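User: Can you write out an input/output pair for a complex, sequences first and structure second?

Assistant: Here is one pair. Inputs:
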Amino acid sequence: MEDRLKKMRFRPPDPGLRDRILDAAHAEAPTPLPAYQRILRSEAFWLAAAAAILLVFALHLFSVPYAAPETYTTALSPETEDLRKTLSGMLDDGQWLTRRFEVRLPVMPRIPPNGGPNMADLLREFR
Amino acid sequence: MQELAPQEKKWLSEIAQGNLDALGAIYDGYAAMLYGYARSLGARRPLAEDALQEVFLRLARRPATLSNVRNLRAYLFASVRREVFRWTRRRSLRRETHVADPDPLFESAAGGISPAEALHVEEALSKLPMPQREVVVMKVYGLLTFDEIARVTRVSPNTAAGRYRYAVEKLRRMLQEPR
């Protein structure tokens, strides 16, 4: 039976149908997208963006403080005392302290045993 | 499931890149078969032509979807089927078993049977229930496997094979052909 069926073939459609269909297809074909839209529609772009976001998040999550905080014992002025208290408070929750605070305190110059003509000026400066 | 032939891959790739000349090549290769399939589903000439046009326009409109096509012939058969059923749903042609169209559907192939005999076979084929008729068309003229036919018609491969077997038996009886 199959052999008998194979000895027949479908009649082709109207010969003009080919041109009609292809003309309509050319008319309806989408115009090429601008480069930025092709990029926005590309899977590679969105995969790369997602990977970058995940990487930044992971780095943030697993990052550790890059230096242990240090404290300085010195005679502090009232202002630096406030700073010292703040830093001490932060030290209590040390896990959140991810930055090193550098406290620059004035260093008293060595005063010659016999004093000096500028002693009074130096003391005034540190007040 | 058959893989895409190299030529089919080339066509689909060209269409995806916006080169619609490949559409003409696909038309030349498959239009007669798809048109005949649409007619065998019960669509008259204008409807079969509309369905064929819509299938090709869809290829041109959404070239990106072609990247998912793994079997071009099965895809085209499924598209034609969907289009014909979409158009005929209201007219309930799906339940119609006899194709009453004055235009003959078949012609004798080169070195084939006589035109009168072709008409006789076509008449017998048109008397088959539509589900059996479409399986015969896809198997004999579309060269699809039962697995591919099952995917197109959304039945199991066993059902597709069973429909084909029943159809061939009925055709043999109608045409009084010995087993």
